Amino acid sequence: MIHSRIIGSGSYLPRNVVTNAALAQRMDTSDDWIRSRTGIRQRHIAEANETSSSLAFEASKAAIASAGIAAQDIDLIIVATSTPDYVFPSTACLLQDKLGIKGSPAFDLQAVCSGFVYALTTADLFIRSGQHRCALVVGAEVFSRILDWNDRGTCVLFGDGAGAVILKADDQPGIMASALHADGSHAGILSVPGNICGGKVTGDPFLRMDGPAVFKFAVRVLDEVAREILAKCKLQVDDVDWLIPHQANLRILESTAKRLGLPHEKLIVTVDQHGNTSAASVPLALDLALRDGRIKAGDKVMLQGVGGGFTWGAVLVQI
Ligand code: ACO
Prior knowledge:
single chain, Peroxisomal Thiolase, Chain A, domain 1, 2 domains, five-stranded mixed beta sheet, globular, binds acetyl coenzyme *A
Protein backbone atom coordinates (compact mmCIF):
# COMPACT_ATOMS: atom_id res chain seq x y z
CA MET A 1 0.00 0.00 0.00
CA ILE A 2 1.27 3.48 -0.82
CA HIS A 3 1.48 6.09 1.93
CA SER A 4 3.08 9.53 2.06
CA ARG A 5 5.70 10.90 4.48
CA ILE A 6 7.05 14.36 5.16
CA ILE A 7 10.77 14.03 4.38
CA GLY A 8 11.81 17.68 4.60
CA SER A 9 10.60 21.14 5.53
CA GLY A 10 11.58 24.76 5.09
CA SER A 11 10.29 28.22 5.82
CA TYR A 12 10.99 31.84 5.12
CA LEU A 13 10.07 35.11 6.78
CA PRO A 14 10.62 38.59 5.35
CA ARG A 15 13.48 40.40 7.09
CA ASN A 16 11.33 43.40 8.01
CA VAL A 17 10.10 42.86 11.59
CA VAL A 18 7.32 45.17 12.83
CA THR A 19 6.81 45.19 16.59
CA ASN A 20 3.63 46.14 18.41
CA ALA A 21 5.42 49.27 19.63
CA ALA A 22 6.09 50.27 16.00
CA LEU A 23 2.39 49.84 15.18
CA ALA A 24 1.45 51.91 18.23
CA GLN A 25 3.41 54.81 16.74
CA ARG A 26 1.26 54.65 13.58
CA MET A 27 -2.21 54.02 15.03
CA ASP A 28 -4.29 54.11 18.20
CA THR A 29 -3.21 50.79 19.71
CA SER A 30 -0.73 49.52 22.28
CA ASP A 31 1.65 46.62 22.86
CA ASP A 32 -0.39 45.75 25.94
CA TRP A 33 -3.73 45.59 24.03
CA ILE A 34 -2.31 43.45 21.21
CA ARG A 35 -0.38 41.08 23.52
CA SER A 36 -3.19 40.60 26.02
CA ARG A 37 -5.87 39.97 23.33
CA THR A 38 -3.81 37.92 20.87
CA GLY A 39 -0.36 36.96 22.25
CA ILE A 40 1.24 38.65 19.23
CA ARG A 41 4.48 40.58 19.90
CA GLN A 42 5.72 41.14 16.35
CA ARG A 43 5.14 40.15 12.74
CA HIS A 44 7.26 40.05 9.56
CA ILE A 45 6.09 42.28 6.72
CA ALA A 46 7.14 41.75 3.09
CA GLU A 47 9.07 44.44 1.23
CA ALA A 48 7.48 45.86 -1.94
CA ASN A 49 9.49 43.50 -4.15
CA GLU A 50 8.53 40.37 -2.17
CA THR A 51 5.52 38.30 -3.23
CA SER A 52 3.94 35.01 -2.24
CA SER A 53 5.93 33.23 -4.96
CA SER A 54 9.24 34.77 -3.83
CA LEU A 55 8.61 33.80 -0.19
CA ALA A 56 7.47 30.34 -1.36
CA PHE A 57 10.67 29.99 -3.41
CA GLU A 58 12.89 30.60 -0.37
CA ALA A 59 10.87 28.20 1.81
CA SER A 60 10.88 25.57 -0.96
CA LYS A 61 14.66 25.75 -1.44
CA ALA A 62 15.09 25.10 2.29
CA ALA A 63 12.60 22.19 2.20
CA ILE A 64 14.31 20.64 -0.83
CA ALA A 65 17.71 20.92 0.90
CA SER A 66 16.40 19.40 4.14
CA ALA A 67 14.79 16.51 2.22
CA GLY A 68 18.06 15.85 0.40
CA ILE A 69 16.35 15.71 -2.99
CA ALA A 70 16.84 17.61 -6.25
CA ALA A 71 14.15 20.04 -7.44
CA GLN A 72 13.81 17.79 -10.51
CA ASP A 73 12.52 14.98 -8.25
CA ILE A 74 9.35 16.98 -7.52
CA ASP A 75 6.41 15.78 -9.61
CA LEU A 76 3.58 17.82 -8.03
CA ILE A 77 3.43 21.37 -6.64
CA ILE A 78 0.53 22.72 -4.59
CA VAL A 79 0.66 26.23 -3.16
CA ALA A 80 -1.94 27.23 -0.57
CA THR A 81 -2.42 30.98 -0.75
CA SER A 82 -5.14 33.63 -0.63
CA THR A 83 -2.68 36.32 -1.69
CA PRO A 84 -1.40 35.09 -5.07
CA ASP A 85 1.04 37.19 -7.10
CA TYR A 86 -1.46 37.47 -9.97
CA VAL A 87 -5.06 36.59 -10.79
CA PHE A 88 -3.29 34.07 -13.02
CA PRO A 89 -1.02 32.25 -13.67
CA SER A 90 -1.06 30.49 -10.33
CA THR A 91 1.61 31.13 -7.71
CA ALA A 92 2.46 27.42 -8.01
CA CYS A 93 3.34 27.85 -11.70
CA LEU A 94 5.49 30.91 -10.90
CA LEU A 95 7.18 28.90 -8.15
CA GLN A 96 7.80 25.97 -10.50
CA ASP A 97 9.57 28.32 -12.91
CA LYS A 98 11.65 29.88 -10.11
CA LEU A 99 12.72 26.35 -9.11
CA GLY A 100 13.85 25.72 -12.70
CA ILE A 101 11.63 22.70 -13.26
CA LYS A 102 8.93 21.94 -15.83
CA GLY A 103 6.22 19.46 -16.65
CA SER A 104 4.80 18.47 -13.25
CA PRO A 105 1.29 19.69 -12.39
CA ALA A 106 1.30 22.89 -10.34
CA PHE A 107 -1.75 24.61 -8.91
CA ASP A 108 -2.90 26.92 -6.14
CA LEU A 109 -5.36 25.92 -3.47
CA GLN A 110 -7.54 28.55 -1.84
CA ALA A 111 -8.88 27.69 1.61
CA VAL A 112 -7.53 30.79 3.41
CA CYS A 113 -6.03 29.86 6.82
CA SER A 114 -6.92 26.16 6.33
CA GLY A 115 -5.04 26.19 3.02
CA PHE A 116 -1.99 24.20 4.07
CA VAL A 117 -4.04 21.46 5.74
CA TYR A 118 -6.21 21.26 2.60
CA ALA A 119 -3.10 21.20 0.36
CA LEU A 120 -1.32 18.54 2.42
CA THR A 121 -4.42 16.33 2.33
CA THR A 122 -4.74 16.82 -1.44
CA ALA A 123 -1.07 15.96 -2.02
CA ASP A 124 -1.41 12.89 0.22
CA LEU A 125 -4.36 11.68 -1.88
CA PHE A 126 -2.43 12.27 -5.15
CA ILE A 127 0.48 10.23 -3.78
CA ARG A 128 -1.67 7.46 -2.35
CA SER A 129 -3.42 7.14 -5.74
CA GLY A 130 -0.03 6.20 -7.21
CA GLN A 131 -0.16 9.03 -9.74
CA HIS A 132 2.61 11.11 -8.12
CA ARG A 133 5.54 10.29 -5.85
CA CYS A 134 7.12 13.52 -4.61
CA ALA A 135 5.08 16.62 -3.83
CA LEU A 136 6.14 20.10 -2.82
CA VAL A 137 3.38 21.52 -0.59
CA VAL A 138 3.62 25.18 0.34
CA GLY A 139 1.69 27.77 2.33
CA ALA A 140 2.70 31.30 1.30
CA GLU A 141 1.06 34.61 2.07
CA VAL A 142 1.50 38.36 1.93
CA PHE A 143 -1.57 39.27 3.98
CA SER A 144 -0.06 42.72 4.61
CA ARG A 145 -1.27 43.57 1.05
CA ILE A 146 -4.97 42.97 1.85
CA LEU A 147 -5.07 44.69 5.24
CA ASP A 148 -6.75 48.01 5.87
CA TRP A 149 -3.97 49.71 7.83
CA ASN A 150 -6.59 52.15 9.21
CA ASP A 151 -8.55 49.28 10.79
CA ARG A 152 -6.77 48.58 14.07
CA GLY A 153 -9.14 45.68 14.78
CA THR A 154 -7.62 43.60 11.95
CA CYS A 155 -4.26 44.99 10.77
CA VAL A 156 -2.42 44.22 14.02
CA LEU A 157 -3.23 40.51 13.74
CA PHE A 158 -1.46 39.40 10.56
CA GLY A 159 2.01 38.89 9.11
CA ASP A 160 3.70 37.57 5.96
CA GLY A 161 5.71 34.37 5.41
CA ALA A 162 5.94 30.95 3.80
CA GLY A 163 6.43 27.35 4.87
CA ALA A 164 6.94 24.25 2.75
CA VAL A 165 7.21 20.48 3.05
CA ILE A 166 8.30 17.69 0.74
CA LEU A 167 5.84 14.80 0.82
CA LYS A 168 7.13 11.54 -0.61
CA ALA A 169 5.64 8.12 -1.37
CA ASP A 170 6.59 5.50 1.22
CA ASP A 171 5.39 2.10 2.35
CA GLN A 172 4.84 3.42 5.92
CA PRO A 173 2.42 6.22 6.93
CA GLY A 174 3.47 9.42 7.33
CA ILE A 175 0.11 11.01 6.98
CA MET A 176 -2.08 8.88 9.27
CA ALA A 177 -5.45 10.57 8.75
CA SER A 178 -6.99 13.81 7.68
CA ALA A 179 -10.39 15.51 7.72
CA LEU A 180 -11.50 18.59 5.80
CA HIS A 181 -14.67 20.64 6.21
CA ALA A 182 -16.34 23.83 5.03
CA ASP A 183 -19.50 25.79 5.77
CA GLY A 184 -20.03 28.62 3.32
CA SER A 185 -22.91 30.08 5.34
CA HIS A 186 -20.26 31.74 7.56
CA ALA A 187 -18.57 33.58 4.66
CA GLY A 188 -19.60 36.93 6.13
CA ILE A 189 -17.61 36.75 9.39
CA LEU A 190 -14.23 36.78 7.63
CA SER A 191 -13.77 37.89 4.04
CA VAL A 192 -12.12 40.15 1.49
CA PRO A 193 -15.29 40.92 -0.44
CA GLY A 194 -13.76 42.83 -3.38
CA ASN A 195 -12.81 41.76 -6.89
CA ILE A 196 -11.35 43.11 -10.13
CA CYS A 197 -13.86 43.99 -12.83
CA GLY A 198 -13.40 46.09 -15.96
CA GLY A 199 -9.91 47.14 -14.85
CA LYS A 200 -11.08 48.41 -11.45
CA VAL A 201 -11.42 47.03 -7.96
CA THR A 202 -15.10 46.48 -7.25
CA GLY A 203 -16.33 46.11 -3.68
CA ASP A 204 -14.05 46.21 -0.68
CA PRO A 205 -10.50 44.90 -1.29
CA PHE A 206 -9.60 44.70 2.41
CA LEU A 207 -9.92 41.94 4.98
CA ARG A 208 -13.02 42.36 7.15
CA MET A 209 -13.72 40.29 10.21
CA ASP A 210 -16.17 39.81 13.05
CA GLY A 211 -13.48 38.97 15.62
CA PRO A 212 -15.62 37.53 18.44
CA ALA A 213 -17.64 35.36 15.98
CA VAL A 214 -14.42 34.03 14.42
CA PHE A 215 -13.01 33.31 17.86
CA LYS A 216 -16.02 31.24 18.96
CA PHE A 217 -16.25 29.36 15.66
CA ALA A 218 -12.51 28.54 15.56
CA VAL A 219 -12.35 27.13 19.10
CA ARG A 220 -15.38 24.89 18.52
CA VAL A 221 -14.33 23.41 15.17
CA LEU A 222 -10.66 22.92 16.13
CA ASP A 223 -11.81 20.81 19.07
CA GLU A 224 -14.32 18.85 16.95
CA VAL A 225 -11.93 18.08 14.11
CA ALA A 226 -9.14 16.97 16.47
CA ARG A 227 -11.54 14.46 18.06
CA GLU A 228 -12.71 13.33 14.61
CA ILE A 229 -9.12 12.54 13.58
CA LEU A 230 -8.35 10.72 16.85
CA ALA A 231 -11.49 8.59 16.42
CA LYS A 232 -10.48 7.75 12.83
CA CYS A 233 -7.05 6.59 14.05
CA LYS A 234 -8.41 4.93 17.21
CA LEU A 235 -6.00 7.04 19.27
CA GLN A 236 -6.36 9.04 22.50
CA VAL A 237 -5.37 12.65 23.09
CA ASP A 238 -2.35 11.38 25.07
CA ASP A 239 -1.04 9.71 21.89
CA VAL A 240 -0.54 13.13 20.27
CA ASP A 241 3.01 14.41 20.85
CA TRP A 242 2.51 17.89 19.40
CA LEU A 243 -0.42 20.10 18.46
CA ILE A 244 0.09 22.73 15.74
CA PRO A 245 -3.17 24.62 15.28
CA HIS A 246 -3.41 27.47 12.80
CA GLN A 247 -1.63 30.33 14.53
CA ALA A 248 -4.45 32.89 14.69
CA ASN A 249 -4.41 34.01 18.27
CA LEU A 250 -2.75 32.63 21.41
CA ARG A 251 -6.10 32.55 23.22
CA ILE A 252 -7.58 30.35 20.46
CA LEU A 253 -4.56 28.01 20.65
CA GLU A 254 -4.71 27.74 24.42
CA SER A 255 -8.49 27.23 24.46
CA THR A 256 -8.14 24.45 21.89
CA ALA A 257 -5.44 22.65 23.88
CA LYS A 258 -7.45 23.07 27.08
CA ARG A 259 -10.72 21.74 25.58
CA LEU A 260 -8.80 18.72 24.28
CA GLY A 261 -7.08 18.18 27.63
CA LEU A 262 -3.67 18.49 25.99
CA PRO A 263 -0.88 19.93 28.18
CA HIS A 264 0.37 23.38 27.22
CA GLU A 265 3.90 21.97 26.70
CA LYS A 266 2.64 20.01 23.66
CA LEU A 267 1.43 23.15 21.90
CA ILE A 268 3.73 24.71 19.26
CA VAL A 269 3.31 28.49 19.34
CA THR A 270 4.70 30.92 16.76
CA VAL A 271 1.90 33.48 16.67
CA ASP A 272 3.83 35.60 19.19
CA GLN A 273 6.71 36.01 16.71
CA HIS A 274 4.93 35.76 13.33
CA GLY A 275 1.37 37.01 13.88
CA ASN A 276 -1.24 35.21 11.81
CA THR A 277 0.34 34.24 8.47
CA SER A 278 -2.80 32.44 7.23
CA ALA A 279 -1.92 29.39 5.07
CA ALA A 280 1.77 29.78 5.95
CA SER A 281 1.29 29.53 9.71
CA VAL A 282 1.13 25.73 10.11
CA PRO A 283 4.13 24.83 7.88
CA LEU A 284 6.13 27.70 9.43
CA ALA A 285 5.46 26.36 12.93
CA LEU A 286 6.15 22.77 11.85
CA ASP A 287 9.48 23.73 10.27
CA LEU A 288 10.53 25.74 13.31
CA ALA A 289 9.81 22.87 15.74
CA LEU A 290 11.50 20.30 13.48
CA ARG A 291 14.61 22.46 13.20
CA ASP A 292 14.86 23.32 16.90
CA GLY A 293 14.60 19.59 17.70
CA ARG A 294 11.34 19.63 19.65
CA ILE A 295 9.62 17.42 17.05
CA LYS A 296 11.58 14.20 16.56
CA ALA A 297 11.36 11.22 14.21
CA GLY A 298 8.41 9.03 15.20
CA ASP A 299 6.44 11.85 16.88
CA LYS A 300 2.75 12.17 16.11
CA VAL A 301 1.84 15.75 15.20
CA MET A 302 -1.68 17.10 14.82
CA LEU A 303 -1.83 19.95 12.27
CA GLN A 304 -5.02 22.03 12.27
CA GLY A 305 -6.41 24.75 10.04
CA VAL A 306 -9.38 27.07 10.34
CA GLY A 307 -10.16 30.12 8.27
CA GLY A 308 -12.34 32.08 5.90
CA GLY A 309 -15.01 30.22 4.06
CA PHE A 310 -15.46 29.02 6.71
CA THR A 311 -13.05 26.15 6.18
CA TRP A 312 -11.42 23.87 8.71
CA GLY A 313 -9.55 20.61 8.91
CA ALA A 314 -6.79 18.59 10.50
CA VAL A 315 -4.05 16.14 9.57
CA LEU A 316 -2.38 13.68 11.93
CA VAL A 317 1.14 13.00 10.75
CA GLN A 318 3.86 10.73 12.09
CA ILE A 319 7.26 12.26 11.43
N1 ACO B 1 -5.84 48.32 19.76
C1 ACO B 1 -6.58 48.86 20.75
N2 ACO B 1 -7.90 48.71 20.83
C2 ACO B 1 -8.52 47.98 19.88
C3 ACO B 1 -7.79 47.36 18.83
C4 ACO B 1 -6.41 47.58 18.79
N3 ACO B 1 -5.61 47.04 17.85
N4 ACO B 1 -8.66 46.70 18.05
C5 ACO B 1 -9.87 46.84 18.58
N5 ACO B 1 -9.79 47.62 19.69
C6 ACO B 1 -10.86 48.04 20.59
C7 ACO B 1 -12.21 48.01 19.91
O1 ACO B 1 -12.42 49.21 19.19
C8 ACO B 1 -13.14 47.89 21.11
O2 ACO B 1 -13.27 49.16 21.69
P1 ACO B 1 -14.69 49.64 22.30
O3 ACO B 1 -15.01 48.63 23.36
O4 ACO B 1 -14.39 51.01 22.82
O5 ACO B 1 -15.64 49.60 21.14
C9 ACO B 1 -12.33 47.05 22.11
O6 ACO B 1 -10.96 47.11 21.65
C10 ACO B 1 -12.78 45.62 22.19
O7 ACO B 1 -12.92 45.12 20.90
P2 ACO B 1 -13.36 43.64 20.69
O8 ACO B 1 -13.41 43.37 19.21
O9 ACO B 1 -14.54 43.32 21.51
O10 ACO B 1 -12.10 42.87 21.32
P3 ACO B 1 -11.96 41.36 21.60
O11 ACO B 1 -11.65 41.17 23.02
O12 ACO B 1 -13.05 40.54 21.00
O13 ACO B 1 -10.64 41.02 20.81
C11 ACO B 1 -9.87 40.12 18.72
C12 ACO B 1 -10.59 41.27 19.39
C13 ACO B 1 -8.45 40.07 19.21
C14 ACO B 1 -9.89 40.37 17.21
C15 ACO B 1 -10.62 38.81 19.09
O14 ACO B 1 -11.97 38.92 18.81
C16 ACO B 1 -10.06 37.66 18.33
O15 ACO B 1 -8.94 37.26 18.52
N6 ACO B 1 -10.86 37.06 17.48
C17 ACO B 1 -10.35 35.99 16.62
C18 ACO B 1 -10.02 36.61 15.38
C19 ACO B 1 -8.83 36.04 14.73
O16 ACO B 1 -7.98 35.41 15.28
N7 ACO B 1 -8.80 36.31 13.47
C20 ACO B 1 -7.73 35.87 12.66
C21 ACO B 1 -8.22 35.57 11.33
S1 ACO B 1 -9.29 34.25 11.38
C22 ACO B 1 -8.42 32.95 11.40
O17 ACO B 1 -7.26 32.98 11.15
C23 ACO B 1 -9.15 31.75 11.74
